[in-house]
């Protein structure tokens, strides 16, 4: 089968764009091929700093011929309609058409045959369109043609296009097309300095091999492997250990076509600066790796750089240049760090009064105060020291105002810990300052110290509550404030740390602490006055046209003026309503979390449907027990029986326009299966409820399993819709008892078969 080779050769493609660009190229070409009926066997795309490349193999040489039936006018239709039909289908006369019988009349049908085109002709048509519409985040025009209408936009100047197509055993053809004056051919170029001459290529195997000879490693994964292996070996040979950094590895692999690993040195006195600052300085400014002493784990005064050339002097000039830049950058970082140490974290806090966190939420100072109050409240629940929790929350954001974090935002929290340790704070306080941002992703660890947990929960719950109060919640794929991540962070902390956090009680308390508004009501329930603290602006600014109050007094005055707007919210229990909305959001996020771990989202629905389920840890344990139960034969059969009971009830309730609540009358039981089921329901309900109360969900499921035999026997022997209306009603009430009994553990109606 023929193979396509496509290369787009240009100036430097930014490293951050390369992976997506390669994927976009593969997707756009293969989607177009499939749309044209050219189903391929496989495709792979590659990127280097100077080229995007794609190979697609197993493409048919031609499109398949298409035969379609086209329906025409009715027999006896006007001549104009008939002539239009003949012209559109290419028929010479109606004698060449078929007749289709239809209740509405007999219609002419034309069989239209469209012969397939050669695949190379299809490629010549679709490739220029793909190149011209390529979705670069940023693009440019260049040269004499840039001022002309329709000139090409590309990430950097495009110099050459390689496009060949043909069988592996034959000489391929060049796909005949051009873009912006650049003709497709079979010529590419090697390394910019070590092998810049033109190279003639035929197909992908030949292309990749010739590029390698010309000092270009095409596959980015191969470049990464080479960099990592060589860096580790060089560090080991010098008695050090490479500090691995996957993000940096991905970036530097996109900066070079022929990676050459070298080692440089910086002055030992810079090691007095925290290791995180040294690493951030060297990584951010020079894209270099650091190394450490394997015995002590401390950084060494060495770094590893990745060059893009085999220099004639062994890399000495390259190393010297990097050392010179790194020396200057480390000197700056050392100065920033030493300057930061002169000011205590707490002394920086007044500056937060002038920094707005969000225009409708308030300043960073207000945020710190609310986090401090919430951390003290939550410390009682997570069994943390309240004084330490409040102290850590108060200092947790202070490092945002330091010189080092201003230069390297990625070390926020971590530098806060360093500064807290330097000024003699308790270890628990210092750890909480670093850990309160955690977890920042699915692979990040969670805080484990109780003080850290209290502060982390306070920060995340306050942020969620604040944005919910002002009505700025995630919509679709948009989540600019990372609220989904914050909710997942809360969930992970609760579950992984085994914390019992009753959200139905906690969330209203968090919200009340953010929005402290008191309305004075007269006997008729009308507001006569209202007072508020600065936190009240959260509620006030739910109305987007509102201006920012300057102080508490102005806020209270504005609230009085707009009392009619706020009274309905106050009357219906504002905090409780926002808490309920947030609880639903946590439920959705929990489903996402459990689904990623392999759990079924319908089981989460079944547990949440019971109502009052706000203890996320218990929900997870209940879902786990339910999942194991439903994997057993007893669980599967009981689910089937319960579903059958629910379906019958739904039909009969709709028919009778009533529900069948209430206890069945034992005197109306005429069959042994009825009596046995009623007895089993009573026993199981008591046993399962007792097990749930003890939070022994496995035992609750075992109790539920005892219902399976009597439920099976009931449906096998008992006719529910008996001729006697009283017996029918009684049996329907018994079915309702099955539904009620299983709700001790979950709402089985929510579980998918």
Number of domains: 5
Instruction: Tell me the structural class.
Output: alpha+beta
Question: CATH topology of the largest domain, which one?
Answer: Alpha-Beta Plaits
**Averaging pLDDT over every residue, what do you get?**
88
Number of contiguous helices: 28
Helix fraction, binned, reads 40-55%
Percent range for β-strand residues: 5-15%
CATH architecture of the largest domain: 2-Layer Sandwich
Low-confidence stretches: 530-538
Which CATH class of the largest domain?
Alpha Beta
Main sheet characteristics: 7 strands, mixed
Task: Please give the number of β-strands.
Answer: 20
- First-residue to last-residue Cα separation: 45 Å
Radius of gyration: 36 Å
Approximate shape: flat
